[in-house]
Amino acid sequence: MNCTKIEKWLSDQIDGELSERKTRAIEAHLEKCASCRSYAASLEKIHDEATSLERVEVSPAFWEGFASRLKANLESSREERKEKRALALSWNWVWSGAALLAVVAVGLYLLLFQSPQPQEMYVFSLENSLASIYQEIGDDSELEELFNSILVESIDEYIGDSEWKERPDLLENLLLWEGLTEEEIEFLESEIKKDIKS
Amino acid sequence: MKGNMEDCSDGHLVEQAKQGDVEAFAELARRCQEKVYYTLLALTKNQQDASDLAQEAFMQAFKSLKSFKQRSSFYTWIYRIAVNLTLNFLKRRKREEGREVLNESHSVNKESEDPSFSPDERSLKKELSEKLQEAIDSLSLPYRASFTLVVFQGMTHGQAARILGCSENTVSWRMHKARKMLQARLKPYLGGG
Predict the structure, then answer these.
(1) By CB neighbour count within 10 A (0-12 exposed, 13-18 middle, 19+ buried), where does B106 fall?
(2) Using alpha carbons only, what angle is made at residue B24 by residues B64 and A69, rounded to the nearest 5 degrees?
(3) Considering CB atoms only, which of B25, B136, B186 is closest to A74?
(4) What per-residue confidence (pLDDT) applies to A113?
(5) Shortest Cα distance, chain A CAs vs residue B20, angstroms
(6) Which candidate in A12, B47, B123, B139 could, as Cys together with A18 as Cys, close a disulfide (CB 3.0–4.6 Å)?
(7) For chain B, what is the domain count?
(8) Are B161 and B85 part of one and the same domain?
(9) Chain A residues within 8 Å of chain B (Cβ atoms)
(10) A58: which chain B residues are within 8 Å (Cβ-Cβ)?
(11) Is B107 helix (H, G, I), strand (E, B) or coil?
């Protein structure tokens, strides 16, 4: 049996990684090889010494300091992340809000200035876009609150700047974008989705 | 609340932490901070570096928690982050030269203080343990990292391999080579054995 191979197996044996078959082969080899017996004894001694090296004990105060430092870092990281997400979301909302208002404007234009001839009806859905927003918000109540306030402010700003505020009949008809053509609806929906995903 | 956290499984805490629950992550960190810290201390030989790197590792883990799919345990995952960060830190430090050799003597031999040994035996053992510490410190990083994880942390070759990002055979080979180097260096102190 090759001594070099035995030396490698001896190392594996100390780590508890050697098969029974190889263990038996080592035992047989050691019986007749003094050099490997000496090497095996050296490794055992090194291992025993290494595992008995005492580590520096750290005081409980160290761990308290470690934990509070970590917690402070975690808190500030979470706040930072929340701010970034809120900013990203608000920009998304600005773009999707702009697209939404464009849809409404076109719908109203069609309502007010186009002949009232019957048209094919389409239902425009923001369901998928909103799903992305809700997914982003998740269970974060603060972010949800922020999202809602942005939503309210956007609508308020839009309505406040127009004379439509005094025209509740028009406000009730804000959903009249069904007058758009299929092509226009597809285009606007894809624009909104793109903005929300970006 | 804290009591509840202590009863939670790692998997549950990971899910909570993924939702941004700082307390849940702090509990996960508390469970393995000691092992992580001592491993990093064995690698860096410096308490401040070990502490800073452990903090950095936990923060990095928290920030990338969403990518953790729980295919391995949280313990293995954080260990891997911490050890990789430390190995990179040590490589960088070595490159920058001016490397502080911080002989904090972070280890002493328990037996060297043992009253059951005679003064001569104690002195010999102390010498051996000091020389052993020096010899371990002189191992190059891949060998020292494997030795630290397997001998000091009691990991299997497989566990060490997952943390170091190499194969079990590589760990096995590094352990063999590390022991050969230690044995050669310590020969004068190992007695007739």
Answers:
(1) buried
(2) 75
(3) B25
(4) 59
(5) 7
(6) A12
(7) 2
(8) no
(9) 7-8, 11-12, 14-17, 38-39, 41-47, 49-56, 58, 62-63, 66-67, 69-71, 73-75, 77-78, 81-82, 138-140
(10) 37, 47
(11) strand
Contacts of B25 in chain A (CB under 8 A): 74
CATH number of the domain at B62, please.
1.10.1740.10
Residue B176 lies in a domain: yes
Q: Among B52, B68, B100, give the residue marking a domain's end.
A: B100
Closest-CA distance of chain B to residue A49, Å: 7
User: Do B94 and B154 share a domain, yes or no?
Assistant: no
Does any domain span residue B118?
Answer: yes
**Closest alpha carbon within chain A to B156:** A15
DSSP labels for A81-102? HHHHHHHHHHHHHHHHHHHHHH
- Domain boundaries, given as residue ranges, for chain A: 3-51, 78-197
Q: Which domain holds residue B69?
A: 7-33+43-100
Residue B176 has pLDDT above 90, yes or no: yes
CB contacts < 8 A, A to B, total: 124
Shortest alpha-carbon distance between residue A100 and chain B (Å):
30
Residue B176's nearest CA partner among A32, A27, A37, A13 is A13
- Looking at residue B136, its pLDDT comes to 94
For residues B190 and A175, the model is more confident at B190
Q: Tens digits of per-residue pLDDT, B91-130?
A: 888 777 554 444 444 444 444 445 555 666 666 667 888 8
Q: Is the ipTM of this complex over 0.85?
A: no
Residue of chain A minimizing CA distance to B150? A15
Nearest chain B residue to A71 by CA: give it.
B26
Residue of A nearest to B26 (CA): A71
The last residue of a domain, from among B67, B100, B133:
B100
Q: What is the pTM of this model?
A: 0.62
Cα Rg, chain A, nearest whole Å: 36
Averaged pLDDT, A170-189: 51
Residues B94 and B11 placed together within one structural domain of the fold: yes
Q: What angle do CA A137, A143, A148 make, to 5 degrees?
A: 95
Asked, for residue B108, whether it belongs to a domain, the answer is no
In a domain, B107, yes or no: no
> Which residues of chain A does B193 touch, with a Cβ-Cβ cutoff of 8 Å?
38, 41-42, 44-45
Q: Report which of B124, B140, B148, B153 is spatially closest to residue B181, judged by C-alpha positions.
A: B140
**Rounded-to-integer distance, Cα B136 and Cα B42, Å:** 10
Residue A54 dihedral angles phi and psi, to the nearest 5°? -85, 135
